[in-house]
Amino acid sequence: MSTLLADRWGIHPDHFWLRGQKPERIIQFEEELGMWSVFGYPEVVAILGDPVTYSSDLARRFVPDADESLFDGNLAQTDPPQHRKLRTLASHAFTPKVVADLAPRIQEITDELLDAVADPGRIEMVADLAYPLAVIVIAELLGVPSSDRVLFKKWAKEMFESANKFSLADNEELERDLKGRTEQALHMNDYLREHVLDRRRKPREDLLSKLVEAEVDGERLTDIQVINFSSLLLFAGHVTTTMLLGNTVLCLDAHPEQEARLRADRSRMTGVIEESLRFLSPFATSYRVTNAEVEIAGRTVGANQMVKVLLSAANRDERQFADPHTFDSTRDPNPHIGFGRGIHFCLGAPLARLEGQIALNTMLDRYPGLAVDPEQPPSFMPTPDFVGVRTLGLRTGL
Predict the structure, then answer these.
(1) How does strand 306-310 pair with strand 294-296?
(2) What is the set of domains in the chain, with CATH numbers?
(3) Fewer CB in 10 Å around end: N or C, the chain?
(4) Residue 136, pLDDT above cutoff 50
């Protein structure tokens, strides 16, 4: 994907590395954000792999006066040893066997969604397939009605798609944005609370029931912990898959010769998906707080400082990847960090990969040609924290 395409499609201007540009420094302090930004691959990997020095408990720094219940049980913002307890509970739902056993259902949902497309010659990739597929799968796994996906999308839009930058600077607009996100989170909590209370009364064969009943070190999760845990799985689960699918199709559209090779040899699918995760990493950023003074790439960062790690930029680091701005689906090895690294490595990565493989193979089987509809140019999520299509109109060749 060339610089011109990044500009043409309106990928967020902060993502300068997608335009072939290098950061001035591996680490720099962003005055307007009040935090450090780290762009280099080895530096980012080191930070993500050191939860002792770099805490994921962002609330203490970003919203120190917030109600603790808003984050209690949120796996992404939890440090050891509590993180281990929560991760152990959820890992049972994402074992290789459990994920593999979902394949027939994923295929069934994919076929139903594509059968329902009104015009076989055109498809809106996100609305017609990527989003509903991802939501239905994760909702069924949790045990909440997938028919409520209109609600999920509304909440996700408010919490994930803000155009405002994550910042520590005093800013009335940011404060309003945070308030809006909090309100949506509370709506989501109220919704999930009803399901949690129902499972305590009448357990079922679903993940929500398992979370309610499970014990770690002799302790059960509280209602709010189950709620926050489930909310993260629901949102992160569908957002990851939606962006992975859209971004991969976009990469293939920009490189038709690689799509042709994939059509001729489906064993290339794994390489295509992994390279798209490197080339257009959906989760562009992650955040940590320093527990002590530390040195990063020759710069001293004090204790209790916010550190923004640019996963997407690190995946374009020429110190790690040859020709980093070239989309090469045969790249091997490809140690990208599109799903993170360390103890917070994306729990749903195997499920997202499986959904991507099934959905893309099905589209290639059904449609003789896939190309971005010139009358419907793709739009991207407006936040600098993600690199993912929000809409993607395609022509199918039928």
Answers:
(1) unpaired
(2) 3-386 (1.10.630.10)
(3) C
(4) yes
